[in-house]
Amino acid sequence: MEQKRPLRDAALFSGSTLGLSYLVFWGPLALAGVPAVSFVADIRGPWWATVLFFLGGFVPSGVAFVLTGIYEGRSGVRSLLRRSVQFDLGLRWYLTIVGIVVCGAIGQIAINYILGSPFSLSLFATQIPSLLPLLILGPLSEEYGWRGYLLVKLQKMWHPITSSVGVGLVWGLWHLPLFFLVGTSQHELSIPYLPFVVGAVAVSIPMTWVNNNTRDSIWAAIFFHWLYTYVAQVTSTGVTRSVAYNWLEVLPYVVIAIIVVLIWKPKGGLHA
Predict the structure, then answer these.
(1) pLDDT tens digits for 195-212?
(2) Bridge partners (DSSP) listed for residue 37
(3) For 153-167, how does the pLDDT look when each residue is reduced to its tens digit (9 = 90+)?
(4) Number of structural domains, the chain?
(5) 188: pLDDT confidence band, cut at 50, 70 and 90?
């Protein structure tokens, strides 16, 4: 029975998260062609669509807290919250997170240049005011679920790399309705879905590596996701999108994932 519990928890979390996304929040908006609020175009839907859009973003963390409360009680919820304030990661891991995201951004900007388009580095300064909203929309609204709950359950059954792939696939599937929802960056920028999923899996591997070396710190995942989202936003608004760029955009993070797997040669886990 104990061996089946992590599988049950992971399946219940994944099914609930995807079901709510597809059937309650984002899916109906996409199916009906009702736009929500857009950050990349002058598109504004009705207020109730905007509410559904934003509430849908909190589904992963919300489901994690509900399931934790049901199966682990208050002590489990307190543990989840404590892990999100484990700020003492050590300078090495803060620098590692920053280094990974910076290298990813440099790679994407380089691809943009190779394809013949300029990029203004000043965008990283002009978009700093968006840092605080981006902490809430993405990192806090998702990471209690992805790395705080699902990754923990999967690693009780599988190798960390396999678990990373599992989290990345569910993460990517959860975003699927956004590719059909008018106003989202995925829809308006015509981002292809397959590379997006590959990117989610690729990013999940170094995130697991950091997680497993920071005592399962949810704060490490929040900080990583926060920085990654900000840099991705800046690069997305500064590059010239083309079919080639849309497919090559995730390549830097695929390379980083391969480095984590091969160069650090994890033995039984992604530990340094």
Answers:
(1) 999 999 999 999 999 999
(2) 44
(3) 999 999 999 999 999
(4) 1
(5) confident
Residue 45 lies in a domain: yes
Q: Using an 8 Å Cβ cutoff, are 272 and 213 in contact?
A: yes
The amino acid that residue 101 corresponds to is: V
Residue 269 in any domain: the answer is no
Q: At a CB cut-off of 8 Å and minimum separation 6, what does 151 contact?
A: 163, 164, 167, 208, 211
- pLDDT tier, 266 (very low <50, low <70, confident <90, very high otherwise): low
Asked if residue 271 is part of any domain, the answer here is: no
Q: Which residues of 205-227 are buried (b: 16+ CB within 10 A; e: fewer)?
A: bbbbbbbbbbebbbbbbbbbbbb
Q: Structural domain of residue 135, as residue ranges? A: 4-262
Among residues 37, 13, 14, the alpha carbon closest in space to that of 26 is found at 37
Handedness of CA 111, 135, 10, 217 (dihedral sign): positive
Residue 30, in any domain of the structure: yes
* Residue 108: band (very low, low, confident or very high) from pLDDT cuts 50, 70, 90: very high
pTM of the complete model: 0.94
Sign for the pseudo-dihedral over CA of 57, 158, 204, 81? positive
